[in-house]
Amino acid sequence: MLSLRLRAVRACWSVVSRWSRCCPGSPAVSWVWSGSVRPVRSSAGSLLGTGSATSTRPDPGTDDPATGRCDLSGHDATAPIGLRDVFAQRGYGRLWAARTVSQWGDTFNFVALALLIYDLTGSGLGVSGVVVAEIVPVLLLAPLAGPLVDRWPRVRVMIGSDVFRLVLAVLLAVWHAAPVGVYAVAFAMSFAGVFFNPAASSVLPALVPREALVAANTGIWTAAVLSQIVLAPLAGLLVVSLGYGAAFSINAASYAASALLLRWLRVPGHPDQVPRRRLLVEAREGVAVLVRHPLLRTLAVVQFLAALSAGATSALLVVLAREHLGVTGRGYGLLVGAIGVGAVLGPLVLLRRVRNPTRPLLVFGPFGLRGLVDLALASTTSVPFAAGTLVLYGVGTSTGAVTFNSLLQAETPEHVRGRVFASMDVLWQSGRLVSLGLGGVVADVYGIETVYYLGGAFLLVAAAAGLVSTRNGPATGTMGGSHPS
Q: Which residues pair with 479 in a beta bridge?
C-alpha cells in the first residue's frame, strides 16, 4: 500500500504538474485534469451579454499596423468569433507562436525531469520534491512579482524570463547528475515563471478585442493540450535513445525561439505610469481589488475551491484506477487519454456552437460537471463508464478554463492585472498544496472513494457559488474610477 501511495505521488508530477507556460490562466497544473486558470477585463456586462463598457484605451477592434490588431466590427454579430478571426490579428499570432513553441520544449522538459529525478532518487517522494520546488516560489514571490509586472513593460518581462530559463535549461542539459542541482533548477525556473505568467496573462487582452478573448484563449489552450498529447510519448523515446541532455536542449531551444518571437511583439495600451510605492503596498492593492470587486471576488473563491478538489483528485487518479477500478498501467493510460480527448474537443465545440460562451452557466457550469464526474468515479467500478465520464471531465476542464479565464481577463482592470493574476496564482497553488497534503491522508484513513466524494463536493460548491452570485446579473465594479477594457 505504501509503495502504491508513493507511485501516486510520482503521478502527481507526471500527470498534474505542468501548465506553467500554457493558457494564461492557469497556474502550473495538470493540463488534462485540473483546469487551472490564470487571470484580466472589459466590463462583465459586455462579456455576459447584459451591459456595455467604456474604454480608457484605444478601441482594440481598430486596425493598427504596429500591433497587427484588425478591425472585427464587420464580423457577423450573430456568429461566434472563431480561430480564423483571432489569427488574422498579427500580434496574437506572434504571441500564440511564442507560447506554443515554448510549450513544445516544456513537454520535453517535464517528461525528462520526472524520469531523471526518479532515476536519481529512486523514490516517488523524490519526484514530489520537484513539485514542491515549483510551488514554493509562487507562494513566496508572486505577491511581489505582481507589482513589478504592472510597473515594467510586460513583453520585456516575458523575454527576460525566457532568457533566464534558457540559461537554466542549458545548465541542466550539461549538468544533471545531482538531485540537489535538479531541485535548484526547478525552483529557479518556477521563479522565472512567477513573472512570466502574469505578464503573459496581461498581454493577451491588449492584442484582441474583448469579444474575441474566448477564441484567443481557445487557440492557446488547444495548442498546449495537443502538444502534450503528441510530444510527451516522443519525449520519453528521446530520453531513452539520446539521453536527458537532448530533451533539456530542446527545452532550451524553445525558450530561445519564444524570446525571439516575443522580440517583435508590440502591445498597445500599457498602463499609465503611476507614483511608485513600496512593493508590499502595491501588492495589497491587488488583493484589495479581488476583495472589493464582486465578480473578481467570486472568481477567486471559485478558483480556490477548485484547487482544493483538483490537487488531490488529479494526483490520486492512479490510486483510484488501481484500488477502486482494478486496472493496470495500460488501463490507467486509457483513463488519462480519455480526459485528453475531452480537453481537446471542448473549446472547439464551444467556439462553433455557442454564441455567447461567457454566460454564467458556461463559466461556472463546467465546475459542476467536473464535480458530478468525481462523484460518479467514486461510485462506479465500471472501467468503460469511468472512461466515458472522464471524457466529460476533460470537456469541463477545457471549456471551464477558457471561459473562466476569458471572463477574468475581461474584468481585471489594466493597471492591476499583474497583481490580480499573481494573487490568483497564490490562491491556486496554496489550495492545491493543501489538497495534495490532505488527500493522501484521507485516502489512507477513509479510502480513495472518500477523496473523490469530497473533491466532487468542493467542485459542486464552487459551481453553486458562482451561479448564485451572478443569478441577478453580472457583478461589476469600478476601481480607480475607471473600468478599462
A: 482
Angle between helical axes of 124-151 and 279-292 (0-180°, round to 10):
100
- The gap from C-alpha 245 to its chain's centroid, in whole angstroms, comes to 27
Q: Is 172's pLDDT higher than 80?
A: yes
The conformational region for residue 35 under phi > 0 = left, psi -120 to 50 = alpha, else beta, is left
Using only C-alpha atoms, what is the Rg of the chain? 21
Residue type, 340: G
Grid coordinates belonging to 209: 478585442
What is the domain range of residue 120? 2-469
Bridge-partner residues for 69, per DSSP?
A: 64
The pLDDT score that the predictor gives to residue 270 is 57
Residue 418 lies in a domain: yes
Decide if 474 is inside a domain: no
Q: Tell me the DSSP string of 219-258.
A: HHHHHHHHHHHHHHHHHHHHHHHH-HHHHHHHHHHHHHHH
129 vs 141, which has greater pLDDT? 141
Cell numbers at 69, concatenated: 490588431
* pLDDT tens-digit readout, 306-321: 999 999 998 899 899 9
Over the stretch 287-307, which tens digit does the pLDDT of each residue have? 999 999 999 999 999 999 999
Annotate 366-424 with DSSP letters as a single string: HHHHHHHHHHHHHH---HHHHHHHHHHHHHHHHHHHHHHHHHHHHHS-GGGHHHHHHHH
Q: How many CB atoms lie within 10 A of CB 139?
A: 14
Backbone angles phi, psi at 69, to 5 degrees: -85, 130
- Cβ count within 10 A of residue 331: 15
Between CA 32 and CA 228 the distance in angstroms is 9
Beta bridge partners of 64: 69
pTM above 0.70?
Answer: yes
- Domain CATH number, residue 410: 1.20.1250.20
Q: Which of 40, 42, 39, 151 is nearest to 483 (CA)?
A: 42
Residue 158's contacts (CB-CB under 8 Å, 6 or more residues apart) are 98, 196, 199, 200, 203, 262
Question: Cα 445 vs. chain centroid, distance in angstroms?
Answer: 31
